[in-house]
Amino acid sequence: MINESGGILPYTCEQAFDLAADIERYPEFLRGWISARLLRRESNVCYVDQVVGLGPVRLQFTSRAVLHRPERIDVTSTEAPFRLFSLSWRISPVASAACRVGVVAEIELQSKITQRIVNQIMPAAMDDIIAAFAARAHRVYGVAGPANRG
Question: Rounded to whole angstroms, how far apart are CA atoms 3 and 67?
Answer without folding.
Answer: 21
